[in-house]
Amino acid sequence: MTTAPLLTPVTGTLHALQVPIPYPMKYVTVLIDAPAHGPVTMIDTALDTPEARQAIEDGLAALGLHWEGIDRVIITHHHPDHYGLAGVVEERSGARVHMLDVEIGRGERYWHLWEEWLPGHLKFMRDHGLPAESLASMGADNRRGRDRVHPASAVQPLREGQSVELAGSEWEVLWLPGHADGHLGLWNEHESLLIAGDAILPRISPNVGLYAYTRPDPLGDYLQTLGKLELLNPDRAVVGHHGPVMTGVQARARELRAHHHERLDFIRAEVARRPGDAYALSLAMFPRDLNMSGRRFALAETLAHAEHLRLLGGVYRTWDETREVWVYHG
Ligand SMILES: [Zn+2]
Ligand SMILES: [Zn+2]
Q1: Which Pfam families does this one have (predicted)?
Q2: Exposure check for the chain: N or C terminus, fewer CB within 10 A?
Q3: Residue 243: nearest ligand to its CA?
Q4: Is there a contact between 43 and 59 (Cβ–Cβ < 8 Å)?
Q5: DSSP 8-state assignment for residue 24
Q6: What angle do helix axes 218-232 and 249-273 make, rounded to 10 degrees?
Q7: How far, in Å, is the centroid of ligand 2 from the Cα of 78?
Q8: Domain segments of the chain: what residues?
C-alpha cells in the first residue's frame, strides 16, 4: 500500500518532502527542486531504510521524477539522517554531491576513516569521565548506524558567500556552524526564505556537542550562528525536523540563546560548588533517565558548554592523575 507522499510546495519548483527516519523526530526534510529547465536538485537525503527509500521514490514520482533524474545533491551537514542516501543517489544518477568546504573533511573522517578515528574518539570521551560500559558499547552502536549511511565517493565544495541557483532564483551559501562544524544554509533574500537544515529547529534545541574531531568551541560557533539568524530574520525557514517550514526564526534564535546561557550559568554554579569531570556535570545537567547513547549526547553537549566557559576564562580544568580525567573547577 502506498500513501500519498508528504510533499509541501515551498517556492516555485521547490518542494519539501517529509521522509520517515527511525529517530524520535520521526521525519527529516528532503527538498526537491525540479525546474522545467535546469538541474534537478535534492537537498539532504535521509537515512537508508526501506521506508525512506519508498517515501523518496513516491515524492519523486509525484513530481514526475525518478532517482536517475537527479543531477545535483546538496547536503546541509554530514549527520546520518541527512547524508545517509547521498552515495546511493550519486551511484544511481551520477549526480554531483555538494557540501560546504568546511564539512567535507569532517564527513570524510567520520564516514570513511572511522576505524582510524575511533580510538581518539574513545580516548576523548574517557578523558572526560565516560564510564567503561558506555565506552564499550559505543563502537558497536556506531557500527550499526553506519549500515544505513552510504557516503558519496566524491564531494564537491560549496563556499560561504557563493551563489547557487535553485527554483529559478539565486541563493547565497551560508556557513551556520554549531550543530555541525560545516553546517550549510541557503538564503534567498528576495523571498526572505532560509533553508536551515538543523541549524535551527522549532521544537527541540539542536544538539551542540564537542567531540574529538569537532572544532574546539562548537557552542561559541552556535551562539554566533544564532546571532546571524537573528539578524537575517527570515520570514520562513525550511527546517530539518518538525517542519518542513517554520516562521518566527528570530524569536526562536533568541529563545535558544537564552537556553544555552542558562546552561552556562548552571555549569558555572555547579563547578564552583563542587569540582567535577564533564560526565559528572552531565548527570547534574541532564538528571533524567537516558539510555547509553542519550548519555553520550548529554556528555558531548555538557562538554561543549564547559569548554566554551573554559575558553572564555570562566572555569578552568586540571588533570586528575589518579582517576585519569579532566576535572573542571570554578
Ligand atoms: Zn543534525
Ligand atoms: Zn537532523
Answers
A1: B_lactamase-like_C, Lactamase_B
A2: N
A3: 2
A4: no
A5: T
A6: 150
A7: 9
A8: 7-115+145-256
